[in-house]
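Reposting from the mailing list since nobody answered there.

I have sequence plus structure tokens for a pair of proteins and want to know whether others read the tokens the same way I do. The first protein:
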Amino acid sequence: MKKTITILLVLVIGMVGVFAAASSGLPLSTETSTIDVTSTVTQFALFGVTADTVLDANFASQALFSGAVNTTITKENFDMLTLASAVEVGKLSGINSLATPVSLTITTTDFVSGTNTIGLTVSPESESILAAASSAFGTLKNTSITLVETIPGAAALAPSGDYSATITIGLTV
């Protein structure tokens, strides 16, 4: 019994010491700890032209989009007689990671062969790639680029020759 009392007494004294330390006014941390995480998203605004439609899946990343569009396409053996009404010559698409939209200007030269010229008008003359939003790139999907002669019937009366014209698309951020 003496042993039991001695053990209980030792336990009581030990417990009192633990509780006394916890409530003795020892300094407790009142500061906070933090972990800062940062990341950079690369800014880009890309556009390109295609003869065919760019699939929606290709707008999911910069790499997929870049692989789906071209910087140049060529329409060989183009039938100028179709220019009396608007004729699609390609499609314009774009992808944008900026928080603001970007503008595209579209211009064309006239059809020229030596000193012979057939005036052309391109449509549209401008487009915008939408701004990026939460978890989504801004996009411009498959806008049709068309040409039409400025003087109806001029292509049908054109002298023989090899004619060429260039449509230029420029980006303004």
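The second protein, same order (residues first, tokens after):
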Amino acid sequence: MPRPLHADEMRPADPLTGIALYGWERTALSALKRMTRSIRTESQSLREFPAPAVPHVDRCSFSDGGLMLAPLRYGAFRYLAAGRLVNMLGNGVAPIALAFAVLDLTGSVRDLGLVVGARSLMTVLFVLFGGVVADRISRRLVLVGSNVLGALTQAAVAALVLTGTATIPLLLALGAANGIVSALSQPASAAATPQTVPPELIQPANALIRLGVNAGMIGGAALGGLLVAAVGPGWGLAVDALTFAIAAIAFTGVRVAAPPAKSTRTSIVADVRDGWVEFTARTWVWVVVLGFMILNGALAGGVNVLGPAVADQTIGRSAWGVVLAAETAGMVVGGLIALRIRVRRLLLLGVACMFAESFLLLGLALAPTIVVLLPAGVAVGIAVEQFAVAWDTSIAQHIPADHLARVYSYDMLGSWVAIPLGQVTVGPVAAAIGTRDTLLILATMVVLAVLGMLASRDVRGLEAVALARAAVAQQAESADGGSGDGPAATPAEPAARA
């Protein structure tokens, strides 16, 4: 980079060539240097993030408020965010409608567990395959196709329930099919975000996505309850099928580059193995996933199983619902906070926030009152969003685009695999040693899992790419005498690419 000019020189020389220049010559040469550096920055940005044809966004292009909403300037991102919001609206309706549909059919909690479990099992079994598919072909095609299939499977379930011809075996089969559809869509959905915005906007883009997801879940749960009460669970399932169809239409607008074609065709097994190599190549990735395997297992047993049982004997069922609603509200607040946070070590902040996940467990064990549990739920929600945005941003910035979906699939598999174990084992353990002691053990497991993640130097030291680039750019501009000669560029709409 050019060195700064010496102030005591009457006719300063160009630092690279040593040739003395007059003022107008220096101005022309300085403009040429800035143009060259801009082209070089553009070229490197395209090499590292080959998917979207989006221009480099200068770090001074937006005010803080403008930066928060800047991702919405890109059409592909708007369609992706809309599709995911509608998806989550349906996901909020579906569990309520399906639960009451099965209970109306047989009245058996066991049957409900089988139907729900079949979907979850297929999602876990096929998520690695979903990651391979999303890295092989256009993610837009995967998103559109999986949502069309989801609309068909849920429409079939709705038709069976509405016509009174539903049986448990049929619901099991359709639930399993819908689980496979979910396994196909989730890695593609997660990996698509960094393809729709420039690298500098990945963090606010993830925060906006998370805001939409949480808003969709809140609205979907409320809508599901109203539909089931007013017109029955069959119509709730029909609305869920409709949301799949609407999301499929929205995803047609996510026009981003398809993964680069490989010179040699590889098998699915080889691609899965290649994804594993990429997943384990970065210590911070597998350390965090391992930590969340423990953390999610503890929370699934403590909050999802023991939580309602404790609430039944203390604050009551309706109050427990308020606590869970407070956690969701905290997520919305957390998403707004994540939009504004600008720290260099974003993953460190996100992981440290996960200490808050122990608050509900400790509250249930030591002081199960609404005064304690309500603020604990809000704090947990805020903390979860800080980690979620930090994690998605770190993955998007540091994992090659052509491996991103496969790394996400290993992330999902590792994070989910202990959840059923936690749900199944927590009951017998609580019966043996008591609910209070079990909750304290689970809270300790959460704290130890977070400490284990923070013990990794790679987790503590990982830097956000955009901020690191901004620091380098600032140093370069200072060395070149500043870049305030002209107005900052405003990003243009990215060119649509099939």
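Reply #1 (J.P.):
I read it the same way you do. Confidence is low (pLDDT under 50) at residues 1-63, 470-498.
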